[in-house]
Amino acid sequence: MFLTDSLISASDLLRTARKVAVLSGAGLSKASGIPTYRDTGGLWREGDNLRFSSLDAYKEDPRRFAAFWKKRLADMGKARPNAGHQALARLGRVREVTHVTQNVDGLLSEAGAQNVLELHGSLRRWRCSQCSRGGGPWLYGRCIRCFNYARPDVVMFGESLDPETLLRAEQASAACDVFLLVGSSALVYPAAELPVKALRFGAKLIVLNAEPLLLDHAADVVLHGDAEKLLPALLQHVDPVGRSIT
Ligand code: NAD
Questions:
Q1: Is the CB of residue 27 below 6 angstroms from any atom belonging to ligand 1?
Q2: What is the CA(151)–ligand 1 centre distance, in A?
Q3: Rounded to whole angstroms, how far apart are CA atoms 179 and 207?
Q4: What's residue 201's pLDDT?
Q5: Residue 196 to residue 217: CA distance in whole angstroms
Q6: Rounded to 10 degrees, what is the CA torsion of 58, 63, 68, 72?
Q7: pLDDT tens, residue by residue, 99-134
Q8: Nearest residue CA, atom 37 of ligand 1?
Q9: Helix, strand or coil, per DSSP, at residue 117
């Protein structure tokens, strides 16, 4: 199928859907200047990212742990939503959409998307594991009440996802007519189970990713390319004149 044919097929599915679930990953934010994890130049290729994504480093070296996450927050703070985030926010204005994101950058919400479930937490929130105060992000990477080294409110290796958020993501996946996977290798569990759950409950699956994925074979429509280009093109077909679809 040519790309234009696939775009039309995907937009037909979205236009007739009653409920849509979107699972987004690091590829969505790449055009905003935030590296993915597994691509060339991805974050996993830098040793410190792996090390400081575990609470062991927090216990062993809290000062460097806090400094590392402060720097990542500063890098992310410069990032702005790209055309892909904006197109997804626009989709939410014309369809009933639950956004499930693995990203911790907050850019979907900044683009105006509603109903966003942050499966892996947010780097824009911090919490203190000493006195449990939440808020921030705090200057100096320390809790403003007890001055203990703080941690970002993101899910680290070995930690569980927030059960309530995961449950809502599972419910949205089971209830949707169309599941759109965007910019994710779909290798990290339990997020990777969500499209499979949606398929099991009878949803149509659209996969939009820069490179082929294992899930492609199960998808109704596959779009290979950049989210920041393909999502606006897709929305142009779904909602050509920018008004609400009922
Ligand atoms: P991943 O790195 O495993 O996969 C990213 C996928 O996006 C790849 O398959 C790649 O081909 C694709 N991609 C790259 N550029 C793209 C583009 N412009 N358009 C469309 N697709 C593109 O990332 P993941 O699946 O999200 O899982 C990794 C974990 O990384 C998650 O737990 C997430 O919390 C974390 N993470 C978050 C951020 C962020 O918040 N922006 C950044 C890096 C990693």
A1: yes
A2: 22
A3: 8
A4: 98
A5: 12
A6: 100
A7: 999 999 999 999 999 999 999 999 988 888 888 888
A8: 103
A9: strand
Query: Strand 134-135's sheet: what is its strand order?
Result: 134-135, 121-127, 151-154
Mean pLDDT of all residues in 226-232: 97
What spacing in Å lies between the alpha carbon of 26 and ligand 1's midpoint?
2
Catalytic residue among 120, 217, 224, 237: 120
**What is the SS3 string spanning 7-46?**
HHHHHHHHHHCCEEEEEECHHHHHHHCCCCCCCCCCHHHC
| Residue 26 near ligand 1, beta carbon < 6 Å | yes
Length of the chain: 246
136 lines ligand 1 (CB under 6 A): no
Q: Residue 188: CB within 6 Å of ligand 1?
A: yes
Active site residue 99: no
DSSP-H helix ranges across 149-226 = 163-175, 193-200
Pocket test for ligand 1, best of 37, 80, 125, 230 (most atoms within 8 A of CB): 37
Helical H runs in the chain? 3-16, 26-29, 47-51, 55-60, 62-77, 83-94, 107-110, 163-175, 193-200, 227-238
How many alpha carbons lie under 13 Å from residue 85 in its C-beta half-sphere? Answer: 25
pLDDT tens figures, 192-214: 999 999 999 999 999 999 999 99
pLDDT at 3 over 90: no
Fill in the DSSP letter of residue 56. Answer: H
Contact 148, 129 (CB under 8 A): yes
